[in-house]
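re the bet — no i am not wrong, look at it urself. input seq straight from the record:
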Amino acid sequence: MYGEEFLRKAKTMGLLKRVMFGSDQMYWPNGIEDSIKQLESFDFLTEQEKRNIFYNNASRFLGLDEDEVNLHHSN
């Protein structure tokens, strides 16, 4: 699979801190849910790496402050 191969290469090259999960898919029903499940199933990624891909990398890229991050995690 392309996504798995990409993530394996990104990890090998030390680039996972630059990878963000995208959720703009609107064509296939359940596409986002399936993508999340697939990423969650990758045992070569640590739980921290998955959290980074799903949220932390985008948070850092967008320059969110600690208060805003805490607000997102409180919901």
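see?? The chain is about 65% helix and 0% strand. told u. also The helical segments are 2-12, 31-41, 47-62, 66-74. so pay up
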